[in-house]
Amino acid sequence: MTQWRKSSRSADTGQTDCVEVARLPLAVGIRDSKAPDAGHIALSHVTLASLLSGIKAGTFDL
């Protein structure tokens, strides 16, 4: 069974709309905590690292 986790900081804000992540056999799963039955995306570890680097660098800021 896949164990989904969300940030412990989510509880501090009272927000229920959070991203959840899970370790999958060959990837990392990401899903919306408000709609867990809607499915998830799976990213390789390399792709997730690249995405997080881009987020931290502001690459995706609008």
UniProtKB/TrEMBL annotation:
Pfam families on file: DUF397 (PF04149)
InterPro entries found in the cross-reference section: DUF397 (IPR007278)
Lineage top rank: taxon: Bacteria
Residue span, DUF397 domain: 2-56
Protein name listed in UniProt: DUF397 domain-containing protein
Organism expressing this protein natively: Actinomadura rugatobispora
